[in-house]
Automatic annotation (TrEMBL):
Keywords: Hydrolase, Metal-binding, Zinc. Its cofactor is Zn(2+). It comes from Maudiozyma exigua. Zn(2+) binds at residues 63, 101, 104. The keyword Iron-sulfur does not apply. One of its GO terms (molecular function) is cytidine deaminase activity. GO terms for cellular component: cytosol. This is Cytidine deaminase. GO terms for biological process: nucleobase-containing small molecule metabolic process; pyrimidine-containing compound metabolic process. The active site is at residue 65. Gene3D superfamilies: Cytidine Deaminase, domain 2 (3.40.140.10).
Amino acid sequence: MISHGLSDEELQCIEEQLVEARSRAYCPYSKFHVGCVLFVRGTQDPYICGCNIENASFGATICAERVAMLKAMSNGCQERWTALAIIGDTSGPRDKVITPCGMCRQVMNEFIKDRETFPILMYSPDLKKLQVTNLNELMPMPFNL
Ligand code: THU
């Protein structure tokens, strides 16, 4: 099992922020709400949130994970990433954790430096199940230039 190395307090904040982030999803087409929290310990804004933002031109839709990661990058918060957590919609299977899409895995591969120890927390919609993974597991043999 992969450990997340987060304190109970950090985990609780991540969970609260996840639910709030998910509530801000703009998903009139799929109606599938996703929330993401990129936790960057020790910074002024340690819980960087993302939600999925859809578009009538479907290809312009962006996932919650990429919103959170790109917000961090554009805010100048490019280092010291501690953990990334995601949660899916309650209309999906309640006991199943959400796993990130392929495009988000490729973006994670770009910015997450430690493929083995950086924890990726995948929650069930009701927060009752948590599965922790890493990039080696999620994306073996990644594309790199
Ligand atoms: N979605 C995410 O936000 N993250 C993922 O990892 C998978 C899919 C969003 C995109 C779209 O708005 C909706 O979920 C249905 O695919």
